[in-house]
Amino acid sequence: MNGKILFIIxxxxxxxxxxxxxxxxxxxxxxxxxxxxxxxxxxxxxxxQRAEDLxxxxxxxxxxxxxxxxxxxxxxxxxFIRRKAIYRNGLGATLVNDFTEEQIxxxxxxxxxPPNVNQDDLPWPMGNKISDxxxxxxxxxxxxxxxxxxxxxxxxxxxxxxxxxxIVVYDGALIxxxxxxxxxxxxxxxGWSMTKSIISALVGILVKGNKLNIDAPAPVPEWNxxxxxxxxxxxxxxxxxxxxLDFVEDYYSYSDVTRMLFSTGDMAAFAASHALKHxxxxxxxxxxxxxxxxxxxIRHTVGEQDYHSFPYRALFHxxxxxxxTMEVDASGTFVGSSYSWGTARDWARFGLLYMNKGxxxxxxxxSEEWVKQSATLGGSxxxxxxxxxxxxxxxxxxxxxxxxxxxxxxxxxxxxxFDGQAVFVIPSKKLxxxxxxxxxxxxxxxxxxxxxxxxxxAIS
Length: 460
Hints:
The protein is an alpha+beta fold.
């Protein structure tokens, strides 16, 4: 064999081995964590999850062993890089990273049980009882249903949109709802990055209680030194994705975000360890790092005794979101960037809180000003589409002609997650719209603009 060719082959093999050593743990961790959460939190069928959610290379060649005795999943790809995730009731599934399994399993925590009520006996939105009263006279019922039904039609077998749930709430009333085959209103769905918007709400609750000042330097231990350029990062910078941290958000490679989510035990500490790339407040770059740092700030603010119960006591149970589960990393901090599960109705209730300017069930849970600022464009946002951990429809640099949803009002803001999860809030139309599914088309598009436009057109 030609020496040059042999050298090239050896080089390619070395590169392949190096790449696999970096990326396979990420891939294996993703699949293991996902299967563990899906089975033990949501009760999903393992076979269906593998056939749909994990049906891409190389996860379609992965092996997962589910242990119903110790509530764990062990996974590997091609038999290499075994990863383990363990489930704890109230905390969800956690990948074993940096901490031993025993350390993780023995962590103390307190998560309150849901209110002792039968929600099927309570009227919406605190319960599931939907009024049989007169349908809103100014809403075309057939047109709304047509819009919802359109999300469940697969027009291209090569680009499946796989909508699993859709809900429309108008003026506080649930007026349309549909689920895909095998799913129902009791099914829990992973919100992915919609969890970021939950973290924003929790920060808003602490701000309302004068526990946090978002304009002050963020209380991050790694940045305490006043000579550290990161010391000038504020909570507002983190909320608006203007922290300036040198963190790469690329889910399709071995990057900062994939390392953080699937190979790191203390995600907030990993995120906070990154240096600055831009002066805080001058450049917007969407990263999960900012949100996980916020999650740990919440932990330090409310204290260890209350932290794991705080989202439930202060938010979820007040809204009737009684099926929610937020998951923690190996250090015990909520993975605020990515991991929360709830029913479609739970997600609709969350949107309704913002639709009602923070007022819900006779309580001002968030201040009106907080809701307003959550839907206001950040000053240095190059996308022109981000507020306080919510996406906006203002268009780039506040130019409405460049907005992502051209046929939807500019006052719309929304929580958005991987694979097409969304909670849309459109104040001018009194609408909250939820869509959940598994859209893995190249652009992640499932016809959201036309879907929302049709609903809006149905209101006179």
